[in-house]
Structures are given as C-alpha cells and as structure tokens.
Amino acid sequence: MNSPPSPSLLGVFAHPDDESLLAGGVLAQHHAVGARTAVVTATWAPGSRRVPELAAALAVLGAGSPRLLGYNDARNPEAAPGQPRLVDAPLDEAIGRLVAHIRNFRPDIVVTHDAVGQLTGHPDHLRTHQITLLAVEAAGLARLYPQAGPPWQPAALYAATHPESGVGPLRPLLEAAGKEVLAVPDSYVTTSVDVTPWTDAKWRAILAHRGEVARERPLPGILARLPEADRAQIIRTEHFTRLTPGPTKGDPARLAT
Predict the structure, then answer these.
(1) Count of C-beta atoms within a 10 Å radius of residue 11
(2) Mind listing the pLDDT tens digit for each residue in 18-47?
(3) Strand 67-71 and strand 37-43: pairing?
C-alpha cells in the first residue's frame, strides 16, 4: 500500500531571508520527505539585488523559484523602485495577489509571520501576517477574487513565532544591535520543531543571503559572527502557533446567552 503524500507547505514572508531564518528547517524537512514546498515573498521585485540571493536560498531548501508580490520594503526604497510600499498598498489588492499564489500552488499548510512582527516588530512583518490571514480564508471562497483561479482552502495556517522562554541568547544579541525584542507568551506556541537534522541546510540557506550576512545589524550577520555551537543552539528549534483557517464544525449555535 502506498503511503499518503506528505503535506505541501507554502511559506509567506515579508523579506528575502525571513524564510530561511524562521522556517528554513521545516521547509528543508518537508522537502526531504518529498513534499511540495514554495515561498512567497511580499517585498523586493524581480531584478533587485536580493532576489538572486533568495533564489539561491530556496534552491538549498528545495523550495523552488522565488514567488514575489513585488511591493517595496517599508524601510528600503531600492527593493522595488516605483512600486508602493507593502504597508501602503491597498489591502484588497495585496490579498488578491497572494490568493492567486495560494490557488496556484494549492498548499496543505501555510506558514507566515506572527501577530507581533517577529521579534523586531518590522512593519512589513506585521502587514504580511495580516494579509496572509485574510488571503488564506479568501482563497477557499469561490466568490472572492474569481480572477485568481479556482478556490483552494489550505488545511492549516501556522505563524512562526518566538516564545519568551525560547528567545535565550538572541535577546542580548538583538538588543546590542539596537533592535527591539518582541517575544510572545509560551502559551501562544502550539508547535515546536527540532530541526537539528536540517540545520546544515538551514544555515547554508541563511548564508545565501550574502548581502545581509555582510552587514552588522541584520540577524544573518549577527549569527555569522557567533561561534558555531552558539549559532546551532539558536537555529535548531522553530516555534509556531497554529491558526486554523476556514469554518470549524461543532461551533455553538449561540455565541452568547
């Protein structure tokens, strides 16, 4: 008897390198067992300097070619010159672009940023979280964005996150770089994955973002300057919160009495 296929996984992240830092281990893990995997990146446009690095990172993780929404970065106008910043783009338009990718790839699982903006509260992280929540629901409804293809409802939506107890050595490193540290309560985490067998692939994917590795303040550069053992401790566990999309059977008939 043939075993059922492993669930397909689509990551939706704000910037090139977010996919490797936040879910590189899980993406590599799914690819290793034959699952379809892909990543949608909300900012930076084709032809920009970071997209070749993104392509190299996705090749390491087995996640195909870059899929881009094409918006500008909130803090870097060279990301997509002439295009609106993600945080300024019409919400309905951004949702429609992501719905088209979801319906095209037809993932079982979608992974994105958490509600607090992934440790540093970057506005693009926050906006990507909001757009993804709405797009995952809209993708399953045929009357919404009919031009984006036949409806498809992912079975699960996860937010990559960092619990208070799991920030550990990252906190002083980020604070020393002048960054805010926004972790979530441990109770917010529903799934923690030990990605130790895939940390080599995850680290190679992070290193593929050469421009960020060469800089001091971005997390890839911070990690690159650490001793190998300290770095391994930081990247070997990935934390997520499950946010189940779509209607749930068994909801009470009355919401209030």
Answers:
(1) 30
(2) 999 999 999 999 999 999 999 999 999 999
(3) parallel
> What does the alpha-carbon distance between residue 217 and residue 143 come to, in Å, rounded to a whole number?
44
3-state helix, strand, coil in the chain (%, to 5): 40, 15, 40
Query: Phi/psi of residue 161, each to 5°?
Result: -150, 180
DSSP per residue over 20-76, as a string?
HHHHHHHHHHHHHTT--EEEEEEE--TTSTTHHHHHHHHHHHT--S-EEEEEBPSS-
Q: What are phi and psi of 109, to 5 degrees?
A: -130, 140
Q: How far is CA 19 from the centre of its chain?
A: 5
- Other C-beta atoms closer than 10 Å to the C-beta of 174 total 19
161 with 112: CB under 8 angstroms? Answer: no
Instruction: Answer for the pair 218, 195: CB distance below 8 angstroms, yes or no.
Output: no
Instruction: Convert the pLDDT of each residue in 161-212 to its tens digit.
Output: 999 998 888 889 888 888 888 999 999 999 999 999 999 999 999 999 999 9
Q: Give pTM, 2 decimals.
A: 0.94
Length of the chain: 257
Give the tens place of pLDDT for each residue, 122-155.
999 999 999 999 999 999 999 999 999 999 999 9
Question: CA–CA separation, 206 vs 253, rounded Å?
Answer: 48
